[in-house]
Amino acid sequence: MSEKMRAIIKPGQTPGFEMTLVDIPHPGPRDVLIQIKAMSICGTDLHIYAWDPWARERIRPPIIVGHEFCGTVVERGADVTEVEVGAYVSAESHITCGQCRQCRTGRRHLCQNTQIIGVDRDGCFAEYVVLPVENIWVNPPDMPLEIASLQENFGNAVHTAFAAEVATKNVLITGCGPVGLMAISVVKASGARTIFATDISSYRLDLARKMGADYALNVAEVDVVDFIMSHTNGEGVDVLMEMSGAAAAIDQGFRALADGGEVAMLGLPSAPIPFDLANHVIFKGATIHGIVGRRVWDTWYRIRSLLSSGAVDLSPIITHRYPMEQFEEAIQVMRSGQSGKIVLFPDAVPD
User: Fold this and answer.
1) Is 72 a catalytic residue?
2) Has residue 65 got a pLDDT over 70?
3) pLDDT value of position 241
4) 348 Cβ partners below 8 Å, 6+ apart?
5) Which of 44, 174, 232, 299 is catalytic?
6) Pick the CATH number of 157-290 from 3.40.50.720, 1.10.510.10, 3.40.350.10, 3.30.1660.10
7) 88-140, pLDDT tens digit by residue?
8) CA-based max dimension of the chain
9) Which distant-in-sequence residues (6+ apart) come within 8 Å of 309 by Cβ?
10) Which listed residue (14, 20, 26, 47) is catalytic?
11) Given 2.30.110.10, 3.40.50.1100, 3.90.180.10, 3.30.70.270, which CATH number is that of 4-150+314-345?
């Protein structure tokens, strides 16, 4: 094995990424070394690429970016017995301490000392990555690489969708980026009555319909609140899932929310936003769930059930595939809104 590998890095405190050669990492006693087979681009990667206020506050370059992948275990530390060399795996990207109050009360996704790969430590947009064995998820051997690579991101959608009771309910999903699109499929499988989805991209609204949205509304063309009220007997939606992080979408979603409704918020604003707390939350008696990562490992078992049963098919949202060297083109396509999920491969794109 060569001692060097290709990696996509955030080189400094400016917009953009670059590809370079770096040392292949070595696993510690409780780590495994994974050869990457596929990696998918996340909205968080776009924040880091753009070097927006959130990224400037959080990221300390240089760092290898990326946190969604699948691969094969090629080496394991001296104390690892749980996973065999050759295992086909994905991983939970949040590395937790196991000792803080949140970890010790079954809430590892809220660990006070979390390190996220590709954010707080080197990530997976490379030929190899090292992770603690506690973070490894073994995949079914017949799972396609591209599906396996986006399970971690799918977990965000699953965690969001199960935060509120959606069966028989009217649901609004604001933001039809990849996680919003995946959430549509989960809500559909969970028995939602009517699913409304909003975005500014006609391309992604078409994907929303394919994933099961009853109404896919372009906010530039439709008064969303009026439309929803007219299709819910003037009551509004029972559940809002906010995936966009856009101030206008957040305001619109809360205005369309019924009194006593529930809100699950995953979208990440790039900066602080104004918000009408009194009318949107207090006077409505709304319940709000902030969504961080995935429940470890509860969400992962839900992922397995949804995918293995066929209740959810993620293949329609994978719209672009690129070799890793074309990462710049892939990033720009995803930033354009003219894509669903984009998957990168270390070498040639498989047939």
Assistant:
1) no
2) yes
3) 98
4) 323
5) 44
6) 3.40.50.720
7) 999 999 999 999 999 999 999 999 999 999 999 999 999 999 999 999 999 99
8) 65
9) none
10) 47
11) 3.90.180.10
> What is the spatial distance between Cα 84 and Cα 73, in angstroms, rounded to a whole number?
7
Residue 65: its H or E element = none
Which helix (H) or strand (E) covers residue 230, if one does? helix 224-230
- Evaluate if residue 1 carries a pLDDT over 70: no
In the predicted structure, residue 289 carries a pLDDT above the cut 70: yes
Is the separation of the CB atoms in 170 and 237 below 8 Å? Answer: yes
Query: What is the reported pLDDT for 129?
Result: 98
Residue 121 is which amino acid?
R
State how far the Cα of 176 lies from the Cα of 263, in Å rounded to an integer. Answer: 16
Give the amino acid at 50: A
Who wins on pLDDT, 270 or 126? 126
Q: Give catalytic status of residue 299 as yes or no.
A: no
pTM over 0.85: yes
- SS3 assignment, position 177: coil
8 Å CB contact between 95 and 114: yes
Return the axis-axis angle of helices 178-189 and 202-211, rounded to nearest 10°.
20
Nearest to 194 by CA among 155, 225, 232, 143: 232
What mean pLDDT do residues 184-200 have?
A: 98
Encoded tokens for 69: 């992948």
Residues 165-177: tens digit of each pLDDT: 999 999 999 999 9
Neighbours of 235 (CB within 10 A): 14
Angle of helix 178-189 relative to helix 151-161, nearest 10 degrees, comes to 50
